[in-house]
Specification:
Elements lengths: L15 E3 L2 E2 H31 L8 H20 L1 H30 L8 H30 L1
Antiparallel strand pairs: 1-2
Helix pairs in contact: 1-2, 1-4, 2-3, 3-4
Pfam families: DUF7313
InterPro entries: DUF7313
Keywords: Membrane, Transmembrane, Transmembrane helix
């Protein structure tokens, strides 16, 4: 039997693994966790670069930007698998991407003024929202029996 495939071999990510959860949801959860670690490493790098070389030494973290792009692209693909969940996730992911862009610019301004670099609070909040949503989507099957018993 021939099945319709949107993106060929990539469509393996749409397969259900456990209780209606697709592989893409676990992939996105992993990407978001990697993104949180990349965010921490990038901020440490920004602080060290600003301390040693000033504003000229601060440059974007390629690893953080790559994880941001992969999360956004993964969110768009997720929208083809599960429309509602994918659109919500993609919206949150694009918001996180835009927030990261402006947070980096804010760190550059602080470095130019020789002020201590603050944590990227808005980007951390956006990342937390993205993490909470995809964790809810991918790990809900764990608490589903308890949820169904109560509701």
């Amino acid at each position: 039997m021939i099945t319709a495939s949107l993106l060929g071999p990539v469509d393996i990510l749409a397969q259900e693994v456990v209780s209606g959860v697709a592989i893409i949801e676990f992939v996105l959860l992993g990407l978001v966790i990697i993104n949180l670690a990349a965010r921490m490493i990038a901020h440490r790098g920004y602080v060290n670069a600003a301390r040693e070389d000033g504003a000229d030494g601060v440059s974007r973290s390629l690893f953080l930007e790559a994880t941001d792009v992969l999360i956004v692209l993964g969110g768009f693909y997720y929208a083809t698998v599960h429309l509602h969940g994918g659109v919500v996730f993609a919206t949150l992911a694009v918001g996180m991407f835009i927030t990261d862009f402006f947070e980096f610019e804010a760190r550059l301004v602080e470095a130019r003024k020789d002020a201590p670099l603050e944590r990227p609070k808005a980007a951390l909040f956006a990342s937390a929202l993205v993490f909470l949503y995809i964790a809810y989507q991918s790990l809900f099957f764990i608490i589903k029996p308890l949820w169904d018993a109560v509701i």
